[in-house]
Amino acid sequence: MSFVVAIDGPAGSGKGTITKLVGERLGLLNIDTGATFRCVTLAMLKQNIKIDETEKIKKLLETIKIELERKGEEQKVWLNGEDVSVQIREKAVNDFVSPVSTLKIVREKLLELQRNIAQGKNVIMEGRDIGTTVFPDANVKIYLDATPEERAKRRVLQNIEKGIPTTYHEALENVKARDKMDSERELAPLKRAEDAIYIDSTRMTIPEVVEKICHMIERAK
Asked: How far apart are CA 4 and CA 10, in angstroms?
């Protein structure tokens, strides 16, 4: 029997960082769903597959291999045997990942992958529809949020650390565009599950958010 923690929220809300730290502290398997969508997006870009080329996308999904690996404090993402941990965070992928994530065939493929990874394990998973679609019966559901301005600042710092040049204006425009696209898409839109606990992290430090969420999880066990 597994124990599942679902953390949803918009782009740049800190889901990835918080999920990683909480998972390490409580010994939960961290499944980065965003990375799986980014891998499909990168594969499409590498093969110059357009968003409306359904048959080409279907063939790509039949052969694509995505692996998540934890090495110390760092998570490695492999696409068809290649380490793409940095590539999937670059601007080209950022600009294309939301429309790719709206595709039904992509979501169905990755939904199957995500559930298979989690089967029989104690996991923590972050994304935009974990508590509403992927694991609607999750033991703990959290919706992590912050203002668009704060999320843009965080994204700039994150990209600088990864060696990806990004201006605040670019990050803010990207955050707003992602919010609009993710919340308005027809299939599995970004929204807070009715039974999810809402956390606004705008004025909270990372340790404060981690402590709050760990306390919630421990109470639910």
From this structure: 20
